Amino acid sequence: MTMKTEQFFATCPRGLEAMLADELREQGAQSTTATYGGVAFSGEFELCYRVNLHSRLASRVLWRIAGGEYDNEEDIYQGALSIDWPTRFEVTRTIVVKMTAQKSPLKSLEFATLRIKDAICDRFREAVGARPTVDIRDPDVRVHAFLTDRECTLYLDTSGASLFKRGLRIQAGAAPINENLAAGLIKLSGWRPGVPLFDPMCGSATILMEAAQIALNIAPGSGRNFGFEKLLRFEPAVCVPIRQAAVAAQLPATPQAIYGRDMFGNSLADARVNLEAAGLDQVIELKQGNVLEVPAPAESGVIVTNPPYGIRNGEQAELLEFYPKLGDWLKKKCASWNAYILSADMELPKLIRLNATKRTPLFNGALECRLFEYKIVAGSARK
Questions:
Q1: What is the pLDDT of residues 133-184, one digit of tens each?
Q2: φ, ψ dihedrals at 313, nearest 5°
Q3: Does domain 6-157 have CATH number 3.30.2130.30?
């Protein structure tokens, strides 16, 4: 029996598309095409089970169900109406429709979104005499529409809540990064389990928890549910063994060479709550300490950190003093380490006064950032 090949699109933080394509191919994806903000790929439907469960970089996995040209909102309505929605999900499921667009000529995306919702409800009324209810906060089924200047493509979201919501982090600090971006920073650093990893400004421990999951081979989606479970295409007999195999492949939660420091006790308290809830409290070493004073926890390794970079008013003067001292700390106490520092301010890292060997463009949400790479050796060249 020949299985049908489906088309998917996985979204991710901008800057991680190439690495996501590699990750998707490892799960068996075919015809991967990296584009702005994600990767298109194909495979049998069960592939979306694997990608949702195992991807550390994706934000959502969207299943393409239709696409075609349009000139106006009526074309979009008729295109959505032509889809046999009652064969995709039950009328008792709550829904929401989301739309994004690039160069669309339509005057109101909100009205176009409403027309897609109307088409779904009209198709259900015609088929079963009832319509699904809209729930914008916690819907069972998410319909995504993407408009270009000429084409409208419709997707069903197989993820549900964004995939960076691993179901592990209970407490978040004042300015956390999402888990999939944290995983991307770790991958970009080239870190491998067994090599010491150090976050000297760890906050609520997002980077550390991602490293621990990599070290213990914990599938990032193993502690949560997914949107595909609400679709009629879902086959538990296929999905359950995939999840069971992922859990069986996990390693015991033994101490790893993963270290976190933070000068603020409330941040460390949040971190400890998160680690205990995730069963990782014995895996990561956490201590309170000022980054400018603490020694490196090993002779060499990889530093991955997301320091403050002045988003809030009144911080800039403090940061102008902090970054030169951070450079001194790296040079004096972290010789033989490679440091990877994320910043949305392109000027502050210059104050570190060490030569950045690489600057990788990334986005933290809508915020354009750079991941600065510093290879620290004794007597590192100063700018």
A1: 999 999 999 999 999 999 999 999 999 999 999 977 666 655 579 999 999 9
A2: -65, 145
A3: yes
307: Cβ contacts below 8 Å, ≥ 6 apart: 201, 291, 322, 326, 341, 342, 343
Give the Cα separation of 113 and 109 in Å (integer). Answer: 6
Q: What is the DSSP letter of 133?
A: P
Tell me the pLDDT band of 373, cut-offs 50, 70 and 90: very high
Other beta carbons less than 10 A from residue 251's beta carbon: 12
What are the backbone dihedrals phi and psi of residue 265, each rounded to the nearest 5 degrees, phi first?
Answer: -65, -35
Sheet holding 38-43, edge to edge: 30-35, 38-43, 6-11, 60-69, 151-157, 141-147, 95-101
Q: Report the C-alpha gap between 285 and 268 in whole angstroms.
A: 11
Give per-residue burial for 297-316: e unless 16+ CB within 10 Å, then b.
Answer: beeebbbbbbbbbbeeeeee
In this predicted model, what pLDDT tens digit does every residue of 229-259 receive, in sequence order? 999 999 999 999 999 999 999 999 999 999 9
Tell me the whole-structure pTM to 2 decimals: 0.94
Report pLDDT digits (tens) over 293-308.
999 999 999 999 999 8
Query: For 304-354, what is each residue's pLDDT tens digit?
Result: 999 987 655 457 888 999 999 999 999 999 999 999 999 999 999 999 999
How many Cβ atoms sit within 10 Å of the Cβ of residue 350? 15
Q: In CATH, what class is 179-220+252-375?
A: alpha beta
Domain boundaries, the chain: 6-157, 179-220+252-375
Structural tokens at position 194: 């067994």
